[in-house]
Amino acid sequence: MKKLVFILLALVATTGSSFGQNLIAVQNGNGPAFYQQVDDAIVNAQNGDTIYIPGGSWYVTQPIDKRLHLVGVGHNPNETGATFSTTLNNVTLVDGSSSGSITGIFLELGFAVNSATVNSYMVKRCRISSSLSFSNTNSNFMFIENIIEGQINSGNGSATEYSFLNNIICSTFWANTGIPIFINSIFKNNVFFQDPYCQYSLFENNVFIIGGFSTAINSTAKNNLFVYDILYLEGSGSNNVGSNNIPGQEQSTIFINQEGTLFNYAHDYHLQTSCPGKNAGTDGTDIGIYGGIYPWKEGSIPFNPHFETIQISPKTDANGNLNVNIKVEAQER
Description:
single chain, mainly beta, 6% helix, 29% strand
């Protein structure tokens, strides 16, 4: 209860457009602290702190060099009318940032890991544009319910033991040496708009709009839905195997409302009732982002209390009181 009260106070203090000054709230064991710039919050935060970043666009130059948890108000403009979306130009991880996380933020220029020692990091309900880059020694990253655009790059080798769960992936996959970007990784309940470039990996319950698994090597495909024919057949040189996949589906027959190969907030990625991917996942749920153990949350709202409306009088009354009317919705997950 104490933590919930702090979060609400921090969010009220950081609504920015209503109070004239955006403030970033840092929560730690010594009590809250407030800063006017994200860079200052990162520099002054302690290992394990949570940084609550309000709506608005923020320019960040400071790399993250400690275990921090960055939380925004969300990236979907349809759900953040009261606060605006939280937008950072980018996030860069360096030594010391392992076991941190980032949630509910639009990363306009990308997400980069510039250290070989960073492991066990989680990115959830974010939109990542431009690029997503790693070192070839990073491992145990989790990407859950994100929109990933631009280019995915692992530098001069393959990142290992990554998990991509319930993401919309519009990215191209690229590696300097021409070897697969990910090895020993898991891809479940994603929507792919490009063929993945992986080795020794598992693909379950995904929708492939483009490609037929042709750039995967020594990997397994189970219960996926393909627009094109599947190209993983044994003897093709890829050494991939698969079972219970659904090939050759017209793109217009898959989702409620979707077209093209780019993400759009106006699209509806629920499966049509007649789509053979309904309840066809390995766990009996839908293939795609609304199935699995992390079904896509409508609006991509993060876990912190969500401001639905904020109404503040432009001036105080005769007694010096300011009339404030705020509607906040608690989040179950």
